[in-house]
Structure formats: structure tokens, C-alpha cells
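User: Okay, second chain of the day. Same drill as before: sequence in, C-alpha cells out.
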Amino acid sequence: MTRMVKRAYIAIIAFLAVLLVYYLAAYRDRLETNESEHSFEILEPYLVSERDDSDEDGTTQVIRVKADRIEGSYCTVMFYSIHQNVEVYCDHKLVYGLKAARKNTFTKTPGGMWNIFQLEEGMAGEEIRIELTSVYPFVSYKAPEIYFGEQGPIFKSILSDQAFPLISSMLLILIGFFFVGYVLYNFKNSEVDKNLGMLGWFAAQVGIWKFFDLSITKYFFRGLPVISMLPFMALMSVVIPCVFFLMELHSIKDQKTWLIPCWVSLGVCYLTVFLQFFRFLDFRQMFFLIVFSILFALAVVSYMTVLEFKRVGWSKELKKNLFGFVLIALGVLLDLGEYFLSGGRRTTDFAILGFLVYTIARGYFTLRESGDLMDAGEGTRSYEDMAYHDKMTGCFNRSAFIVDTDPYAVEPDDYVVAVLDLNNLKKCNDTLGHERGDRYIKDSAKIILGTFGKLGSCYRMGGDEFYCLIPKGGLSACKEQKAVMDKMVEEYNAKSTDIRMGIACGYARYDKRMDYDLNATAKRADALMYKNKQAMKSSQSQ
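Assistant: Same drill. C-alpha cells below.
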């Protein structure tokens, strides 16, 4: 009876869903309105001039227009001003004014502002004189577009023009804070890549910059000049998370060169905040320093990418990072170019698009890798998986390796086998106890999974011996991951107070002239691992 009720319920829900789709497609209400054919227009000035005001620091731009038809709700004038004091006269009568607050201790500019005022029907045909005075010396902006008509349609038109960057920036903010929250929630989980949090903060900063830089955003925050300061704040603080994120993706992340653009950015931040707060100079006047810190960071990252290429070659990881970096760098340069060419009134959507694509792609792959490591660390509950997994480390076991190297089921061409061995495990067990020895094995397995595990499947073959089976593997990729592994071991030993970790490694590609199967390849890799172990022991004894 219960099953029958469930089936009947599912059936009615399915029928309602189909009915809803049909109604949406087939029926529309008849709407009759008395809206005018053109609900707004852009007034073309018949005279634009400039004058120098001796009493003012900036230059005053004078725009003269006429509105011939004023009727009903068709009477709104809207235009967007940037860091300008505004006065509007109709037949020599002041009808609208905008100035920064006198007691504003943080900024001396009204910021970006949508100026909105109404005309009366008796003003039809009269001259409207708009005076825009820049609050900054030697800074001028192009004349704005002057909208006239009904406020609702004007707003919809502006929103439609800026819909893509608005939605993209909001997505970037949400994705960025999601990454940060994900890392904070899983902070104690060693399998989660903490660098994802840095990517998230970097993406959120970029999203905040673009979101609050849009003129449509200022429509909702009229009278709050600090909203116009937010893009500058976000831009000047974006360098450090960007550099730290990219630094972690390189094998040469410990070089001090990475910190140079960070210190430059910090210097710019402290200087601009000091000058802003004490009203010496506003953020807008210090914008050239913010741009310099960003371009300098791009130059340093480019230099470090070249060094990375010389050290590890054209690796898969480098290709992904380089593509994303070039995409973002080109977008930023085009954005800045359009900003200066348009007199500060427009930017392109290339930068926000590049950031969004790269953030989603990079975040997806990082989350997937972290999820794989978490799944491997937790192990599996099914008896079938337990038969092929090592419970302590989450790696596959010897039985799984035998199945995966079955000569009757696996074509060994292009396979690489890596053999890894833990140094001094017996000594650790004898001196510190088997509990610490087990910790040594688990911590070593995490490093192996985090490096060679990116290339293929990892197997724990015995107490201190691990294999990695890499399909279509490259020796250069193994060399790269070994360097990363050695670096992670050094960092582990620097923090450890009792365990001294050491992982010897050797790897070999299947060669049908020498190997009858992958087990023979593993023996050659084992011989190379032994040589590496001996070299490590001799270097420690010196």
C-alpha cells in the first residue's frame, strides 16, 4: 500500500511538471499599456565647453542640452559623473547640485554618482546647463551620456548593458568565498589543498573590484562615496594573494624573489591608505602606484615562470598555469588600456571573463584532487575494495598491483613504474616505538599520494615499500614529482621534532627489449631506487 501511494504521488508530480511546462509555453496574458513608443532617449549636447575656475582645483566642463518633450513620467534626467562636483541649471535656475560632504575626513570626492533629477512640463525647450567640476587637478573626464525620459526604462537599459560583468563579478565573489569557506571548514584535513583558499580570496578580491567599479552598482548606493573607493581598495590588495597562490604552484616557490612584489604591494597599500586618511591624496590620485604594483607583480611572475620552465621543462602543470596566467594578464592589460583611453568611464569585460574561467577551472581540478585524496585517506567500506586497499595509508595493496599488472589484461607499453622506499623505518620503530613508526608510514604515504599519486596509482607493497604504476607516463613528469616530493620531505623534517623522514625513489619505463612484463620494469626501478638510497645515506654521513 505504501509503495502504491509513493507511485501515485510521483505520477501526479510528474503530470504537474509537464502541465507547468505546457502552460509556460502556450499561454500569455494580453497586456495593454499606454507607454510611449520611446520611453527614454539620449540627449545630444549642442555645446560642450571647458573653463578653468580660479577658485577650484579642477577644470569645469559645461554641457548644454535641451529637452523638447516633457510629459507625465517622461521627465527624468540621468547621467553618471566620476569624481566631479555637479551643478545643473535650467534657464539660469539651479535645479540640482552634488558636492562631497564638508566634514568627510576620509575622502574629498563624491565618487562615482548617478545624478537623477526631474524636469517640469514648463521647462520644455529651455536650455539645461550641466557643469561638471573635477575635484582633482589635471584630471578630466569625457562628457557623460545624458539620459532623458522614464526612469524605469533608463535603469533597465543600463542594467542590460552591464549585465554580463555584473553577473560575472557576483559569481566570482561567491565562488571565491566558497573556496575560502571550504578550506576553513576542512582546515584540519591534511588532504585538502590549502592553496585553494588563497585562490578563493584572490578571486573574491577581483570580483569585488569589478562589482563596485560598475556604474550600475552606484545606482543602489547613491550618496555613499566610499563605494567608489572599494575598487581601489580591492585592486591594491589583490597582488599578495595572487602571488602567494601562483608561488605554491611552482617547484621554486622557496625563492625570495616571490616576496619582492609582495613587499612592493604592501608599501603601496600603506602609503596610499596614509595619504588617503589624512586627506593629502585620494586613492584615485594614487592609482598610478596601484597599477605599477600590479604590473610589477605580473613581470615578476612572468620571470619566475621562465625559471620554472628552465628547471622542470614544459610540464603539464606549467602549461595549465601559463594558459591561465596569460589569459588573466591580457585581460588586465586590455582593461587598464580601455580605462585610460575612455577617460576612466569604461573598462572591458576581458579581465573578469579571464578571471572567472581560470578560477572555475583551477578550483574544479583542485577540489577534485583534494576529494580523491580524502577518499583514499578514508578508505572504503566495501569488502571488495578492502581486499585491494591498504587500510593504514589508503593506497592500493600488493594484490591490487598484481591485478593491475596482469600481462594478459594490461598492455605495458608506455607504462612507467616508480619504486619508493622509506629510510630508517626499523630504526624509528626500535627507538620511538611502533606507534611512531606507523605515523611515519602514514605521513610518507600522504606525500607519495600528493606527488606520484597525481601521475598514477600508488601501492603499498610491504612495510616500507611503495610502487607507483603510471600509464602513459613520462620520465620528465616523474623527475618533476620527485623534486616536489624531496622538497615536501625537507619541509616535514624541518617541522618534525622526532621523526627524520627519508624517501628513496627510482623509476623506469617499460622496454620490451629488456622487460618481459611490468614486474621486470619494477625490478629495474628498484635497482635505481637502491642507488638513490645509497646516495642519500652517503650524503647524510658527510
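The first strand starts at residue 40 and ends at 43.

User: Thanks, on to the next one.
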